[in-house]
Amino acid sequence: MNKEMELLRIFRVAAESSSFRDAAVRLGTSPQGVTRAIQQLEQHYGEVLFHRSTRQVRITAFGEGLLDQVRPALERFEDLWRPPGSDQQASLSGTVRITAPHSLGARAVLPALERVAARHPGITLDVRLSDRISNTVDEGIDVGIRVGFMRDSRFVARKAADMRLPIVAAPRLIKKVGVPANIDALSSLPVTVALDINTGRPWPWHFKAGRQWTPTAPTLVADNADMEMGAALAGIAFAQLADYMAAPYIASGKLVRVLENEEPPAWGLYVYRPQRGPIPGRVRAVFDEMLVAVGSLPALR
To answer: Average pLDDT of the chain?
Structure first.
């Protein structure tokens, strides 16, 4: 059993590293040792875990699925193996720098940090909310939330929840202008559009089968998702919103979901941290609480 656990541990480190050489440095072994361990696992599972080239290694889809199972199992084992009295959680201290989109600040980040502050008062929480794509490694970010998977070997990312994108409007607006019969009908209705602050261009609305539609004559343009939701609640326009924002209002009847059969597949909400070797306890504490908070967001089924 010890041998099998060690093979899985090597696989986890390799998956969270930029190369087998980088993984070997972290594990205190040789790149050849990492390669042999991965080959043994590939023979055991009958699947390729990494695509190799002379320049890089890239985890396969099967490898990603295995990693999702291996990581929590190893973390649980490490927690169980820790001797009594060795838990230093109560004395964790230092700064943890966090980033997330504005729409997730009060909804996910704040509840997570409230629990961190109560349990670990020695941790300083440095929060930077932004919808701008930034270089989190260069900026020293420790923990972040991202919509959509990050295929970047410099990061460890765990899926915490699914996010749906319903189209909604207030009942009084629907009473006034009616329910759109199809996507094309949106062109004649008042709608909102979100501004991509990275490019200055509007974000398109997303639908099933990869279809996109960008409003050409929106009633409201905003660079803030809560402003879009406010416009929808006020009966100003139809909006496409993340379900963690809209779900409570749909449940209460303040917003009505339309064109449900045209909605795109759910997107992932991921909590991530840069890969910088062993994880400090303070970062682990924040990372774990962020996973719980994102996983607890309101959702549509």
So the answer is: 88
